[in-house]
Amino acid sequence: MDKRWLAIAGAGLTLLAPWLLLHMSPDIEHEQSLCPHKLLTGLPCPGCGITKSLVLLYQGDLLGSLSYHLFGPLVVLGCIGVLVWMSAELFTRRRYLRSLLYSTPLAWYGAVFLGVYHVVRLCYFISTRSIHEILHESMWR
What we know:
The chain is mainly α. The protein has 8 helices and no strands.
């Protein structure tokens, strides 16, 4: 199987899952997180909040989306880009921008930006909550 089909499926599911949650659970802002790290520690992992960010973005609330995770809107743009890019490659039977896809410096910049964002977000999370509130967000309540 061509890996481009897997990329299309992954991007499509990434965009579809929050849309389904939006229609199945309209009050998702108050739902318990299903992140294993957050359930164990009460602290968010680097990806925590992206799903809620996408749900709020689908509702048209950009600021709310950014408050849950800065990368939420970027994930939507990235997934749409992957859908268009991989579909174009399959349709034309040509490969485009392969040097961008396998760019080590780009991956490092993204990883460092996510790491710095996570540390800042974690410091803010801890400074604005008591230990009891943090534990309440875990399974140890």
